[in-house]
Amino acid sequence: MNARTLPPVSTLTEQQQRGWHCVWCGSRLKVGDDIDLGEQRARPVRGAAYSWFPRACGDAAACATRQVVVPQ
User: Fold this and answer.
1) Distance spanning both ends of the chain, measured CA to CA
2) What's the pLDDT tens digit per position in 39-62?
3) What are phi and psi of 63, to 5 degrees?
4) Is residue 22 within 8 Å of 16, Cβ to Cβ?
5) Separation between Cα atoms, residue 42 and residue 25, nearest integer Å
6) Which of 20, 28, 38, 51 is most buried, by the most CB atoms less than 10 A from its CB?
7) For residue 32, what are the contacts with CB-CB under 8 A and spacing of at least 6?
C-alpha cells in the first residue's frame, strides 16, 4: 500500500491521469511493472465529477531518482 498523498489531479498530464505515466515522476509505465493506485474521483468546483486512474513506478527508489531529474 502506498502511503504518499496523491498530487492534485489538476497538476498532472493526461497521461498521468489515465495511468499511462507515473503520477510522481512522469515516466512511461509498463503493465506489470507498476503499482495501481486505484480509481480516484475528482470533483471540480465547476462541471461534473470524473474518475482518474493514477499508477506509480514499481521501483520506488528509481522513481525518486527520476523525480529529482525530471521536475514536475
Assistant:
1) 23
2) 999 998 899 999 999 999 999 888
3) -60, -45
4) yes
5) 21
6) 20
7) none
